[in-house]
Amino acid sequence: MRLVGSPGAWLVWGAVAFFLVNLFGLVLAVVVNSFSVQWFGTWWPNGLTTDYYASAWQDLGLLDVLVVTGQVALAVVALSVLIGVPTAYALARRNFPGKRLVTVLFLLPILLPPMTYGIPLATVLYKFDLAGSVAGVIVANLVPSVPFVVLTMTPFIEQIDPRIEAAARMCGARTLSVFTRVLAPLLVPGILAASILVLVRTVGMFELTFLTAGPGSQTLVVSLYESMFSAGIRAQQAVDAVAVIYTGSMLVLLVIALRFVNPTQLVTRLKEPAP
Amino acid sequence: MTAPTTAPPVSPPGERPPGIAHRLAERGIDRVLLLLVPGVVFVVVLFAYPVLYGLQLSFQPEEGGGPFANYERFFGDPYLRDTIWITLRLAVPAALFNVLASIPIAYRMRGAFRGKRVLTTILVVPITLGTVLTAQGLISYLGPAGWFNKILIGIGLTDEPVRLVNNYWGVLFSLIITGFPFAFLLTLSYLSGIDPTLEQAAATLGADRRRRFRHITFPLLAPGLAITFCLTFVLAFSVFPSAYLVGLPQGETRVISIVAYESAFRDTDYPLGSAIAMVMALVMLVVVGLVLVWRSTMYRGATGGKG
Amino acid sequence: MSVSTEGGAFAELRLDRVRRAFGEHVALRDLELTIKGGEFVALLGPSGCGKSTALNCLAGLLPLSGGQILMDGRRIDTLPPEKRGFGMVFQNYALFPHMSVRRNVAFGLAMRGVARAERIRRVDEVLRLVQLTEHADKFPAQLSGGQQQRVAIARAIVLEPWLVLMDEPLSNLDASLRLEMRNEIRRLHQSLGLTTVYVTHDQEEALALADRLVVLRDGVVQQVGSPEQVYAHPANRYVAGFMGYRNMIPATVSEVDGDLVAVDVGEVTLRGISRDRITENSAVAAIRPSDVSVADREGENTLRGQVEIVEYHGREQAVQARLPGGVPLHVRTRSRLAPGDSVLFHLPPERLLVFGEHS
């Protein structure tokens, strides 16, 4: 397949390059600033230091924030898999009256902006004294995550031949054995992919966490936002340091995710010819 | 478990009318559906209930008045009402740009070539940046003293720094940076699902590159593009932190999320906040609904992708 | 807890008015069939005739809508599939993709709690039987279609089940492999003597393998009999068509004399055989293409036709001719014919079957 050659191709690749160069400059600006001693209006800061990472670590209590972020993300992943996979199984294997309604019910939390249901949800959580706690943040983040697991796992389960389950039964396996010995091992890749995507989404989820978190239950994105919002108090460099830490951890997660999920197969599953 | 050769239990022979369980199983209702229970209970309790609660709350205004007082207030006060247009003015161009820019890039990237995975990864990286780092980067990079303006002045395109952040453009850029990778991934994914032999077939029938795209690829891709537009539009329409950080939150980027948030949590007027959230959801559903109605007029069958 | 498993011999398995409906659609209507221990029964019919439904009902993968299944008088249709002690070979093999060949075959033994040493012995034995010993540690994806097929068979027979169910097991294989595996299945049945129910749409396969054939159409049994019976004496027009009576010539009954019938096709009178007493006036005269021969002069049971299409098939030619009434006549002959020839065809009366039009 011809990638370059026609003027159209040059135009497209030129635009991509322009986008990527600016993107790189944007990220680099933040990274450089986070290491700079002082940088005002010049091409390059007048000295580099890692002091601001240390101060960001201490001032913002980053360790606590990271612990909370980890707790929230892992709890959300575990719970959404636990609730979502059985649901996906039932949706993949059965046609029942009202199935469309159930599907729509699981689509809406993904389709609607988090703000629209986040505000009523936070109101309800405040009513039940759950808001402001780590538990509240977990509950709020589960709302889009469970449907996400359901919607990604349903096609995955559909492509597992139900006759494999029938074959296990014909071999004398009972329901529990069919699940543990045959189905579970086949589901592992799908669950892994869905988990990592949920992890990335949860770590990056701003709105819902922002609406439901209290002082002790902020995740990294939210405390980054808070520190940026109160930028007058803190050095820009410290804020940038937090931003770099955040992006670094997201990048690691994404690279791991891309090892398990082929991004082009999000919609249609097909075998890509070996390059 | 030992396995003696025991006989199956004996039961009296005779006609057995199909039982209720059998007739239900016929329609797909059996014990497997019990697996749905946790998921459905979860969505109902944590999604449907809060939304309905919010809806109900929005009809009970804090400051008295009829049940529609909150909505009357929202649509009566231009300062609140105009946030819908402000948000649409940001979200529609951003979503359109993201989808339209994705098509040619994805079109050139379908099929296998060396370095495809690397390029895809690079294009997807902005997803990890998140709104906050993007905002921070936009401020430093596109700001009056940032590298971008320095280069523009350096090559003589402008004398004064161009104002690109803390206004409409800053928010739009932020929406493109966070939304484009997403739109690109979806488009590439839909495009990969179209059987390449269809285009080859069109070529043997005499269609050139442009007509192959117009008559074959684009019609098959269009339903996918509609979905992509909906999803990127949802992302853009709910713009919130970047409207604060790189926009003008009291002026030209006072988006609907901001007023919803401020009403509910800064002014602790939950009913008004909920009412605005409901308006937001409604506008969203109207736009998505229009796109989906348009989509329903297109061919949506198999696109011949293997797999 | 009754776990009926291996130890596999029974005197008879009786399907009593077995019925299965999907909503309004009746896929299987009151199937009556008795299978004797050790027998090889083939369910034959085109897709959608109910043969796979029957097999799935027998396996317990589909609940019955009515009727019952009795094994030596004990009712088994209420048991779940894992407790019936049957083995099944699926059309697409349904091998566990995450298990090696050895573990696939051993799965059923493990489920029945067979001790490890015994398990290994029996798996080795079966793998030797299906000639897969050297592939024992490979995964299904690494095997060819024929090898996967053998794994599926090994997995089903290692349990020495009461009954082996095979659902079009050869339909995914190419032609030469299909012949080879057909021999293999016949050989395994002869050496192990496992009672087998085999579903297929290929009449050649069914004739070659089975002791008894059950021909189904739209969920209703058309004929049950030995391969010879079904091949030589199809019960009705439908079975005849399925058994290779490709020529169906519309005719009018002119004379009935016991089994012997005379029918008129246009000007010509043909004599043929009818097993059932024909009550209708309009009928069809059925004959296989290979039973038609080229005649050198007019005589009894001859028809003139215009040759239209000639296909070369080695020793023989497949010829399509058209009779004066516009009805096509398919003939396989060693005579060399060419399109446009006007030829006399002889339809031997002992090979010409006459069926009522609505039989």
Automatic annotation (TrEMBL), chain A:
GO biological-process terms attached to the record: transmembrane transport
Transmembrane segments: 12-35, 72-92, 104-128, 134-157, 178-200, 241-261
Span of domain ABC transmembrane type-1: 66-257
UniProtKB keywords: Cell inner membrane, Cell membrane, Membrane, Transmembrane, Transmembrane helix, Transport
GO cellular component: plasma membrane
Pfam families from the UniProt entry: BPD_transp_1 (PF00528)
Membrane topology: Multi-pass membrane protein
Annotated localization: Cell inner membrane; Cell membrane
Main location: membrane
Protein name, entry field: ABC transporter permease
Organism ancestry: Bacteria, Bacillati, Actinomycetota, Actinomycetes, Pseudonocardiales
Automatic annotation (TrEMBL), chain C:
GO molecular function: ABC-type transporter activity; ATP binding; ATP hydrolysis activity
InterPro entries: AAA+_ATPase, ABC_transporter-like_ATP-bd, ABC_transporter-like_CS, ABC_transpr_MalK/UgpC-like, Mo/tungstate-bd_C_term_dom, NA-bd_OB-fold, P-loop_NTPase, Transp-assoc_OB_typ2
Gene3D superfamilies in the cross-refs: 2.40.50.100, Nucleic acid-binding proteins, P-loop containing nucleotide triphosphate hydrolases
PROSITE patterns the record matches: ABC_TRANSPORTER_1, ABC_TRANSPORTER_2
Domain ABC transporter, chain residue ranges per copy: 13-243
Residues making up the signal peptide according to the UniProt record: none
Keywords: ATP-binding, Nucleotide-binding, Transport
Highest taxon in the source lineage: Bacteria
A single GO cellular-component term on record: ATP-binding cassette (ABC) transporter complex, substrate-binding subunit-containing
Pfam families, per the entry: ABC_tran (PF00005), TOBE_2 (PF08402)
PANTHER family in alphabetical order: MALTODEXTRIN IMPORT ATP-BINDING PROTEIN MSMX, OSMOPROTECTIVE COMPOUNDS UPTAKE ATP-BINDING PROTEIN GGTA
The name this protein goes by in its record: Spermidine/putrescine ABC transporter ATP-binding protein
Organism: Actinophytocola xanthii
